[in-house]
Structure prediction request, 169 residues.
Amino acid sequence: MASVDLRDNLLGISWVDSGWVPILNPSNVLEYFSERSNPFYDRTCNNEVVKMQRLTLDHLNQMVGVEYILLHAQEPILYIIRKQQRQSPTQVIPLADYYIIAGVVYQAPDLGSVISSRVLSAVHGIQSAFDEAMSFCRYHPSKGYWWHFKEQEERGENTQSFSAPANQG
Prediction:
């Protein structure tokens, strides 16, 4: 199993440059994403090389390495940027996705993070239910086990008891 560097996990942060928000559109969203203060942007990517050499983004297809592309745009509110490793002009490996909603940039969680979060929520709910059920369970050597509910006591009802089977030996 590969180890995960916590510095690479940027799921809990967001970034925004409010000066850009009113003018964001599909033609300038990659420029917005490449701002120096954006913690999601890798300065060693091919987009920087293209920018420094004043080439068009079409030249990215001929390069090998990390690049950012605009994957989807739903103007004026949603843009999805993909970070990918280009192996050849026709082969890329997705590394991460980022979404921009109303100018705020977030890293999209990977499938493992989503499943882990859902499983943790389910286990927490089950543990809470088990702890509450156990708080009503009572035991006495002469009576055995029984359930003790405060509502029954208030109504004057007897509590239900049950005995554990005796060990036969």
